[in-house]
């Protein structure tokens, strides 16, 4: 077995482990089940990646986040480590081929979504793999009490049944005491070693500010930030509005939201990681799996949906250990609006049934069909057709995803279907006279057969890569060709990719999940209440409130740098100053009556402080005012 420290240096170029990483790795290599409760940025991934590389066999990693799995696989590959993510939509033949490669090519990591464990074919292949470790990322998803419970996580016990001797490692960044206990029970862990790092973030100053001008505060805070900034907002529209505002104030910024193509997302991320752009204005989807060390400020323009998500998001600041800030701004109506808006969009069982049935009709999926089928939809178009509320419908889809009824990804793209409606000869003559369309149409003709006979779907991303044209230019050129009678064109856009994980059974599908849908609603209400209580509690250090929420009782000390601690420090300083000033002023007045200006000059103090002390001395009958604004000691 290779020494873990050698592996750390070979692949990550680190000389030493951080925090409790070494202890976790040693316990895992000794064959113990482990629970790892580290905060965001605490280095959880290394805890299972290093022991997996030290042992013979493959590590199975279960995660609910497709984007995070893809990022980790990509990062491992860049280090020369064999890793694979088993995607959805694979045929039995493709799955067999992948597992043959895994068995024969010494792969070290296989990443799976929990829904994959519902496949008997997959379980049969996993049964015969030489598995060294089972790692459960985002393990709070297995708990009914967690903020992101997914029923599919309950199937993980099947892996334990297949490989009872293989150690399991459960990892999460956000788990209350109740959730931590539930994780151990649901995963049937055997006397697990529990490793818990402090949830305290001593270098992040949490500033929660009540203001009627959020935009001015944003510009002020971003200008003060010396390094990179993330601004979190709740909607796609807000990302665009705030990016425009920042540009108007000569601040480099990009908007990041679900309506972007994968290419645009990657470009925005590269510009921000490369410090070519200072600010990313983003919805909550941004940041998962991104480890940028020099984020100086995380700014929340709106109240978060839960303290769990808030804690994760502020944890993207100050990972280099340098002082950083997490600023949240709100106004007098935000807490009421949060409760009203979120309660209004949390789906009931009736809402889920309604959206699900309309979705089946919209996609023309027959009863008993749809399993493993994939569709792209534009959510606005779907909601408009059936007069459904947009935000609530989106929440229903998120819930259906959690219930493993379907999976969805936010992915914007334009779909085009074309048919050439003129003869081959006419088309060639047209292209000789209109050279600007020649490269585009030549590529289409070479790539897609039968385009003269029937409508054919063309891949705009592929054509863009081959020609170097932007998708916008390609779309405009196709529209121009249609207007001139050369082609017939059907353009559609989509912002969601849906993949159905079970056949359509209407009410039967939803009724089996009634209990969870109702408990999900109750849990969301509690989370919203916790957020409102948090921001309005100005009597307790904000760090301490978060530590209390996450059950980190051992490290409950005031941070000294949040806005509550700032206010207390100012108050204490002011009291101390007043006591000193009172003595100085009384000593001066013993020499004879004086005006406030005389006192200010004599003791070199601020006017406001001197006036406050004089007012207090008057109220306690220590001094009196004489004509011409002279103050005199009373005997």
Automatic annotation (TrEMBL):
Gene3D superfamilies from the UniProt entry: P-loop containing nucleotide triphosphate hydrolases, Winged helix-like DNA-binding domain superfamily/Winged helix DNA-binding domain
Domain Helicase C-terminal: 214-363
GO BP terms in the entry: DNA recombination; DNA repair
Species name: Mesohalobacter halotolerans
SMART domains: DEXDc, HELICc
EC number assigned by the record: 5.6.2.4
Catalytic reactions on record: Couples ATP hydrolysis with the unwinding of duplex DNA by translocating in the 3'-5' direction
Stored Pfam families: DEAD (PF00270), Helicase_C (PF00271), RecQ_Zn_bind (PF16124)
NCBIfam families linked: recQ_fam
Protein name as catalogued: ATP-dependent DNA helicase RecQ
């Amino acid at each position: 077995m290779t020494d873990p420290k050698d592996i750390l240096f070979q692949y990550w170029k680190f000389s030493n482990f951080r925090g409790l990483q070494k202890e976790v790795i040693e316990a895992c290599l000794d064959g113990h089940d482990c629970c790892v409760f580290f905060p965001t940025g605490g280095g959880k991934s290394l805890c299972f990646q290093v022991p997996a590389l030290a042992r013979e066999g493959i590590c199975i990693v279960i995660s609910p986040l497709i984007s995070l799995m893809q990022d980790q696989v990509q990062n491992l590959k860049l280090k020369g480590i064999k890793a694979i993510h088993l995607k959805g939509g694979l045929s039995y033949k493709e799955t067999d081929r992948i597992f043959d490669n895994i068995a024969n090519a010494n792969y070290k990591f296989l990443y799976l979504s929990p829904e994959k464990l519902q496949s008997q074919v997959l379980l049969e292949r996993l049964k015969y793999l030489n598995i060294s470790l089972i790692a459960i990322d985002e393990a709070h998803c297995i708990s009914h009490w967690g903020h992101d419970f997914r029923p599919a996580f309950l199937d993980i016990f099947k892996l334990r049944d297949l490989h009872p001797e293989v150690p399991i490692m459960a990892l999460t960044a956000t788990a209350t005491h109740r959730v931590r206990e539930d994780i151990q029970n649901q995963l049937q862990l055997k006397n697990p070693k529990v490793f818990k790092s402090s949830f305290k973030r001593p270098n992040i100053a949490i500033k929660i500010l009540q203001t009627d001008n959020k935009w001015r505060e944003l510009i002020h805070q971003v200008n003060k930030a010396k390094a990179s900034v993330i601004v979190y907002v709740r909607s796609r529209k807000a990302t665009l509005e705030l990016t425009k505002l920042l540009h108007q104030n000569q601040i480099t910024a990009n908007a990041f939201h679900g309506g972007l193509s994968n290419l645009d997302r990657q470009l925005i991320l590269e510009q921000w990681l490369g410090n070519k752009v200072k600010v990313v204005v983003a919805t909550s989807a941004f940041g998962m799996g991104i480890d940028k060390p020099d984020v100086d400020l995380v700014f929340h323009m709106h109240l978060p949906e839960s303290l769990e998500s808030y804690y994760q998001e502020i944890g993207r600041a100050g990972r280099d250990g340098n002082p950083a800030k997490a600023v949240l701004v709100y106004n007098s109506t935000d807490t009421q609006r949060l409760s009203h808006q979120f309660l209004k969009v949390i789906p009931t069982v009736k809402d889920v049934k309604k959206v699900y049935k309309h979705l089946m009709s919209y996609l023309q999926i027959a009863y008993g069909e749809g399993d493993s089928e994939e569709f792209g939809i534009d959510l606005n178009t779907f909601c408009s057709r059936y007069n459904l509320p947009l935000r609530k419908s989106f929440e229903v889809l998120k819930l259906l995803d959690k219930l493993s009824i379907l999976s969805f990804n936010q992915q914007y793209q334009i779909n085009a279907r074309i048919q050439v409606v003129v003869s081959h000869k006419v088309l060639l003559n047209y292209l000789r006279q209109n050279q600007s369309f020649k490269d585009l149409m030549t590529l289409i003709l070479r790539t897609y057969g039968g385009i003269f006979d029937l409508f054919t779907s063309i891949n705009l991303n592929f054509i863009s890569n081959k020609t170097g044209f932007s998708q916008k230019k390609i779309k405009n050129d196709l529209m121009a060709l249609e207007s001139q009678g050369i082609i017939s064109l059907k353009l559609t856009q989509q912002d969601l990719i849906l993949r159905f994980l079970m056949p359509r059974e209407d009410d039967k599908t939803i009724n089996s999940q009634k209990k969870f849908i109702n408990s999900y609603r109750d849990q969301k209400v509690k989370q919203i209440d916790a957020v409102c209580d948090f921001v309005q509690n100005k009597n307790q250090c904000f760090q301490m409130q978060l530590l209390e929420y996450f059950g980190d009782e051992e490290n409950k000390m005031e941070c000294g740098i949040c806005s509550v601690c700032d206010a207390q420090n100012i108050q204490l300083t002011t009291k101390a100053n007043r006591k000193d000033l009172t003595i100085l002023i009384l000593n001066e007045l013993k020499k004879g009556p004086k005006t406030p200006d005389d006192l200010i000059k004599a003791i070199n103090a601020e006017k406001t402080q001197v006036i406050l002390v004089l007012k207090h001395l008057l109220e306690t009958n220590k001094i009196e005012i004489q004509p011409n604004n002279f103050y005199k000691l009373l005997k």
